[in-house]
Amino acid sequence: MKKATYTLQINGEARTVEAAPDTPLLWVLRDGAKLTGTKYGCGVGYCGACTVLTDGIPTRSCSMPVDALDEGTAITTIEGFAEENPNHPVLQAWNDLQVPQCGYCQSGQILSAKAFLEDNPEPSAQDIKDGMTNLCRCGTYNEIAAAIAHAADLTKKSSA
Amino acid sequence: MHLSRRAMLAGTAASFTLFVCAEDALVRKVDAAQPALHQLGVYLTIGEDNRILFTTPNAEMGQGTFDALARMMAEELDASWEQIDIALSGRNVAMFNPKIYGQTTGGSLAIQGFGPVVRKAGAAARQMLRQAAAEQLGVAPDAVTMRDGTASANGMTLTYGELAEAASQLEAPKDVALKSPEEFRLIGKPYMRKEVRPKTTGEARFSVDVDLPNMAVAALAMPEEAWGKIKTPEGLNALKNRDDILAVAPVTGGFAIIAEDFWTAKSAADTLTVVVELTEDEQLSSSDIDAVIRSAVTSDKAEAALFAAVNEGEDLSASRAAIADAFKGAADQMEMLYSVPVWVHGALEPLSATALLDGKNLTLWAPSQNPKATVEVAAKAAGLEPSAVTLERTFIGGGFGRKWNTDFTLQAVEAAIALPGRPVKVIWTREQDTQHDFYRPQLYGSLKFGLDADGNIAAMSNTIAGQSIGRVWSARYNPAAPDYSMQNNPAYRIQSAHLETRPVDLPLPIGWWRSVSHQPTAFFYESALDELAARAGKDPFAYRLAHLDEPRGRRVLETLQTLVVNEEGAIGIAYSDAYGGYTAAAISVSLEEGYLQLNKIWAVADVGLAIDPDNVKAQIKGGIYFGLGPTLEGETQIENAVVVGNNLGDIGALTPTGAPPIDVTLIDNPGEAPAGVGEIGTPLIAPALCNAIVAAGGPRIRTLPVSKSDLQVQI
Question: Which of A148, B157, B444, B494 is deepest in the core (most CB within 10 A)?
């Protein structure tokens, strides 16, 4: 497929990349923008390792062709999120509870958790279980659930 | 603060690339030729800036030894944790784990084997620094107080950084005393693992993330078949003429299609259909494999070896005769045939490696559990001496045993040979990772028990048949020695026992999978014990304790019992004594209208000295989940050499929905040597779950996965 030029809003910056229209956003980010914090896991939108935020919404970037993105869509990767919000409650909770093992899924987990908590700032344990769908092969699910609850507490305390 | 990207220093042997997790910079650019750095032994470099660099001998794939080994070293060095940086080693023959006879990461042997080595390295460096301080301060070495990276005497204090140059000139002491647990300030204490923060910001570098100047990226065209002779596909030559394809290289297992970026390479590779030729013997499906192994376990004529002689000097036929006699004297007998299926590793990071052939030097960036073989295989492929190969290791995005193999690193070398002077990164697709695994082999266990009048075990035989990982992969394999890749010793006291292995050869590629033979062995024994307890009308805890002498194991089981005794619901338990630890788990389940609901899991472990107790708990939980998914739904279907179901949704990978909460209790026992903890959780879950299913009124499951039964499961 012939390559085209795309200008994307990535982490608040306009970035121009050359890519075939069917190139998934994942590979545009990784190979084009050199933002490798977004991971390739399954390629079919199942595992969530490639999760980024598009206009704040968790998006499985492996299954989002670059050509399908609306112009001006704000794309946030883990790098942008962590640089912009180094003390974000989700990041703080992830560090307080030392969630990662191998760490490969954690970029996607963290961005999914951030968006999840914005929709549901005081989730129950069942809400967390139902709301988080990203795979972790190391099995950090207990720690992820606890970190989301902890992040909700941190947010509540800081706004109280 | 700007976080610098992975620093690259190519060229001389004195330069190296590091992943260093410092307080203020993820990756520090360090040049070993710089005079401000001083080497103290194999593992330690101390800078005059008072930063201490620990080069870890082991791979880091989520098990936490990156941090734990550094902590063990720093404890003996009396350094402050804040001044420690950690780098991943490449291939280094001086880094020798006496428990695994080399540098390999596996067998849960990092802390058990490298732990004492790096503690001694820390203690030796501390002694050298103390000696240097004594000379500079004009006091006897005994008068110097070492603490938090400083040496003090007579009101004067020097930092390790200030002492490093003088200390590095001294001869390393041969014998050093290690601290006792009550002196520990770092080991066993809660504080941050250094790789956590970079793993939450996207900065941690895995193999797929390697990014080098002028790098090309390769995708692979591979057959769907897991074995067979590969034929050159139509259309391969046409690809060579495309402007966007840099090179096309036949590699072991397929064809590398090299472009400037992955999607271009993959789109081109996807235009090819790679087929194989299968001989008549190779045209196998799951049912054929099952029949071969089942026949081996049930036929006396199958190739067989004694797993372990119970009586000294006993050979296979003497042991068989002895157990036959023992069964004759038993009041009751029970026979069972158990099996576990082929399972997939499914590490979240697909296989990937990068290689650069630059004149007579080869550099390899890889997530390797096995540096020696990785370097040797690469050297052979490039026609070089191993000394001309440099291995730079990355963090591993999940290994579970798969990244012990060298197939994927070999492909990177073969691709790089086709594009000399440019680094070539090879990335597998998930489908390829699933269809070209070195699978956990299927095993059958034929168990027979002779029972006394009370229903207790008087005699036992256990014959396990299947493909032997040891026979295929272990350089130390000895057909006359116990094949621990197929079987493990029972945890209980049995008066008369006969243990036998029956290896079969099949074309399915097999390999080490988290907890290896402990998973099937525990499933067979711990399920069987519940069957025997039920037959004797006894409680599963009491029945196990009646056969268990090991006091640490008894305490673990008794502790678990107190945790679950008042729990409602159907509980199943299991016990294991693998990797130097003693563990037990219980699971509570509900069974309604054939639908299996998992409520909660409890685990209790005595791992001896816990280097990082929070990580020990996390490893046990992770190990349990790693076993739980395939126990429920891991059924690898093979149709005429093709593994059907080629993505993460097909392999029994546990999802958050299927993961019940786990509560881990550690027995405080710091006086005992630390166990390996990466694998100890995995063997417990299949038998505990299947025992709970029976307690809930469900069927006795002797063949995994559970989804093969009539029960409805959700992962």
Answer: A148
Where in B266-360 does DSSP place strands (E)? 276-277, 305-308, 332-340, 352-358
The residues, ordered by sequence, that sit 6+ positions from B259 with a Cβ below 8 Å of its Cβ are B216, B217, B218, B219, B244, B245, B246, B265, B268
Between A30, A82, A104, which is nearest B398 by CB?
Answer: A104
Report CB contact under 8 Å: B626, A137.
yes
Q: Do B622 and A77 touch (CB under 8 A)?
A: no
**Rounded to whole angstroms, what are the CA distances from A113 to A81, A108, A110?**
12, 8, 5
User: Do A60 and A12 belong together in one domain?
Assistant: yes
A14 and A56 share one domain: yes
Arithmetic mean of pLDDT, B689-694? 98
**Nearest CB to B200; choose among A43, A91, A134:** A91
One domain for residues A92 and A71: no
Search chain A and give the residue with CA nearest B202.
Answer: A37
User: Which one of B199, B393, B617 makes the best mutation probe of the A interface by having the most chain A beta carbons within 10 Å?
Assistant: B199
Task: Compute the 3-state secondary structure of chain B and give helix, strand, coil in percent, each to the nearest 5.
Answer: 35, 25, 45
User: What is the secondary structure of B52-96 as a DSSP string?
Assistant: EEEEESS--SSSSHHHHHHHHHHHHHT--GGGEEEEE--S-TT--
Which of A101, A107, A144 to mutate to probe the B interface, most B CBs <10 Å?
Answer: A101
User: Angle at the Cα of B357 (from B353 to B362), degrees rounded to 5?
Assistant: 75
d(CA B397, CA B403): 10
- Distance, CA of B54 to CA of B45 (rounded, Å): 7
Closest by CA to B621, choosing from A130, A159, A16, A144, is A144
Among A50, A81, A112, the domain boundary falls at A81
DSSP 8-class letter at A139? -
- The set of residues, in sequence order, having a beta carbon less than 8 Å from that of B136 and lying 6+ positions away, is B158, B163, B166
Q: Which of B261, B431, B656 sits opposite A31 (nearest CB)?
A: B261
The reported pLDDT for the residue numbered B434 is: 98
Shortest CA gap A113–chain B (Å): 12
Q: Contact A20/B267, CB-based, under 8 Å?
A: yes
Q: For residue A88, how far is the Cα from the chain centroid? A: 14
Domain boundary among A58, A81, A104: A81
Strand, helix or coil for residue B192:
coil
Contact A145, A109 (CB under 8 A): no
Q: Are residues A102 and A68 in the same domain?
A: no
- A27 shares its domain with A70: yes
Number of domains in chain A: 2
Neighboring chain B residues of A105 at a CB cutoff of 8 Å? 348
Q: Are residues A154 and A131 in the same domain?
A: yes
The whole-number pLDDT of residue B597 equals 97
What pTM value is reported for the model?
0.95
End-to-end CA distance of chain B: 42
Phi and psi at residue B255, to the nearest 5°: -135, 130
Residue A48 lies in domain: 4-81
> What is the pLDDT confidence band of residue B190, given thresholds at 50, 70 and 90?
confident
The reply to whether residue A137 touches residue B267, judged by beta carbons under 8 angstroms, is no
Interface confidence (ipTM) of the complex: 0.98
A-B C-beta contacts closer than 8 Å: 175
Give the helix/strand (H/E) hosting B378.
helix B371-382
**B127 close to B77: Cβ distance less than 8 angstroms:** no
CATH number at residue A39: 3.10.20.30
Give the one of A37, A43, A144 whose C-beta lies nearest to B430's C-beta: A43
Do residues A31 and A90 share a domain? no
Among B23, B197, B201, B266, most A C-beta atoms within 10 A, so best to mutate, is B201
C-alpha–C-alpha distance, residues B604 and B618, integer Å: 13
Q: What is the pLDDT of residues B588-611, one digit of tens each?
A: 999 999 999 999 999 999 999 999
